[in-house]
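So, can you check?
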Amino acid sequence: MSPYSASAAAVSAASVTAARSRIAGHVVVTPTIFSEALSQATSAKVYLKLENLQHTGAFKVRGALAKITTLSEAQKKAGVIAMSAGNHAQGVAYHAGRLGIPATIVMPKGTPFMKIRKTRDYGATVLLEGESLVEASAFAEKLAAEKDITFIHPYNDPEVIAGQGTIGFEMLDAAPELDTIVVPVGGGGMIAGIALAAKAAKPDIEIVGVEPALYPSMSNALYGHAKPCAGSTMAEGIAVVTAGSVSVPIVKEHVRRVVTVSETSIERAVAMLATRAKTVTEGAGAAPLAALLEYPEMFAGKTVGLVISGANVDARMLSSVLMRDLVREKKVLTLNIEMPDKPGQLHAVSGICAEEGANVLEVIHSRFAMDLSASSARLGITIETRDEDHAKQVMDRIRTSGFKLSIRDPSEP
């Protein structure tokens, strides 16, 4: 018998239905909306399940409350403990605080201040322990045993999985025409629950999971791989080293495929959701759209629901991603222009940009580049254009005006 079987059997479509009843009225029934913009940008008919509109900005409130509502009065009085560096921490802290239950959240020492502050603001006691999620989890479980308080695992718990699975029922209630649901995958709790619910409501629906290429934990478990799970990913919410033992057999039975996506695809998806779908999401929440961008043939012609799992992205990170996307699409680029060191040259270049409708963002004028003659200067000019064709038009005009030009690599300082 699989070591997962007994635990996995504790979760079913019926337990998702029961969880839905228990959490009703205390979590947001988030909208499932059709996106004309994303449908035009991809080969699919795209719907978005906006879990980024939950109270805490992420779907984790569902599983947290589903678990908390199964506790006895004595267990509630004793309190709960959880380990998380972000969304699960806030989900547990929010509902525990709302219900007057003492909550302790263990976070790794490197957790961003914003996430620590938000978790404390919900009334939880935050302990910073360990250099990684693995170390923090070991500490939390040890403390739970010592103090005899309930440990709420972020994904490897049948009741948590059932709570996350309520998303599947809601999506098909709102958009019964869906033939595919694409779900971000970390430990696998959400995709396991959604698969159980969605398959019960519509047996022929396909479920596809998405992981960051740097953390293929579920792919390893499903396909017998041993790929490393390490590195810095924008999708830190699903950067899990080991898939959940409860979720693996459910995913193996009910999920069509789990794919991995690159960091570039995740960045592009975050930017596309912000600029075209007008919704803010974190890297993990954008992973489903990243899959459509990276595997268009898999979703061509299908009616696809994307679970936008969360919006808790750092403002500085979001700003960087949006600017990097403009650079990638050549809507913002820096030109290095060699010119004679004499009056009027800067004015000539800026005049060309103005005439061609390009917006000048920054100018750096250098006379001391040692690879130039003493009678020459270099102009570094950053411009904003409509698109790549417009950028080419501006550059061609500068060249035909007698200037030597090159595009600066955005990775250069």
Notes: Residues 61-152 form a domain with the Rossmann fold fold (CATH 3.40.50.1100). The chain has 18 helices and 14 strands. The chain has three domains: 5-59+160-324, 61-152, 330-407.
